[in-house]
Amino acid sequence: MDQKQGHHKKRKRVLKRFMDRTKNLIIFIIIITITTMMMMMTTTMASTFISARSLPVIGFSSNQRRVSCSSSFSRQQQICVFGGDVSRKGRYINERIRSSSSSSSSNDKNNVRRRGTKINRERQRGRAAIVNAAGHGHAHGSASSTERRSGENKGFVEEMRFVAMKLHTREQAPKEGKKKAEKVPEQKPMAQWQPTKEGYLKFLVESKAVYDAMEAIVASNADPMYNAFIDCGLERSEALDKDIQWFRETLKMEVPEAKGAGKDYADFLNNLAKESPPRFLCHFYNVYFAHSAGGKMIGRKVSEMILDGKELEFYIWNKNGGLEKSLAEVKENLNEAAEKWTREEKDICLEETSKSFQLSGALLRLIA
To answer: Could you give the domains of the chain?
Structure first.
């Protein structure tokens, strides 16, 4: 009996030692596995994240065929990206990053995670973002990629509004204006404007040429997407007719012919509407929406200065439920139209904003 108990205790001791060793082995395997995974993740992150000073990056959209590299970097640091499959571009960038990451200075390590996260977000959009040596995002076009896409989640009209506000001066838009004021009459503070009745009448006549062109283009069915903006409630031609008639009959002024800035703008729009609907709708948005906001303020101030506070029909909206309802409907229609555009077409539309400001500024110069 004692012998059996001894054998039983011996088997228990052997089994316990076996279990202890097995447990230690499992723990060791887990530690090795975790260490290996961490090393792999570290290697992957190091190959993906880009140092802000060691590698220039160039942004491109899926429709762009080629983007040039910055000439301010050495040939070994430059990356040229050509049109084609985005995944191939990503692998190519990773290979170049791996080859250059070993030479990155230790001072750049603090920027690695932030830059890498930005690159991954840009790739998810179907394009690579490339950060230059100063750490500033840059994309092909007149505005940076980040700037152009601000407000994208709220609809394309918000993107247009954002770009337009950046082209205002601080005087014009204290919160969002970024443009440095130039020495042109329309960018002076309104307190310094010196409007005249003759200049104001000419402004109204030239403006009517622009609105006549826009309304005729929309009604002409030059492109099917224009149909949504027929009788939108923002039309100004009829109101301008009444105001010009008031100047003729009440103030006994001779009405000039539209042959200046307004006629030039109208001719430009007639050609543009057939070539590029996205670019035309950029002008459509900026002209109508700007007039409903800053234009109203300008009209009120000028009227106080030279017309004894007379409210012109140009600044009154009675159709389709009034101004706010008309603006909301046009905004919705613009967003719906833009949903059918590619990202490249949207960017083309946004890039036209500066041209719209240039041509509209020439009109304001008549009263400033």
So the answer is: 66-140 (no CATH), 149-364 (1.20.910.10)
Pair of tokens at residue 302: 């000028």
- Give 79-136 pLDDT, tens digit per residue: 333 333 434 444 444 444 444 444 444 444 444 344 444 434 443 443 333 223 333 3
**Which of 56-65, 108-117, 134-143, 264-273 has the highest average model confidence (pLDDT)?**
264-273
210-242 burial, b at 16+ Cβ within 10 Å, e below that, comes to: bbbbbbebbeeebbebbeebeebbbbbbebbee
**Sequence-ordered list of residues with C-beta below 8 angstroms from that of 49, at least 6 positions apart, any chain:** 97, 112, 113, 115, 116, 119
Of the candidates 145, 210, 142, 153, the residue with the CA atom closest to the CA atom of residue 179: 142
End-to-end CA distance of the chain: 118
User: Alpha helix (H) ranges present in the chain?
Assistant: 2-48, 86-101, 109-124, 145-149, 156-166, 197-219, 237-249, 261-275, 277-290, 296-306, 323-338, 343-351, 353-364
DSSP at 217: H
How far apart CA 334 and CA 143 sit, in angstroms, is 21
Q: What CA–CA distance (Å, rounded) separates 359 from 267?
A: 12
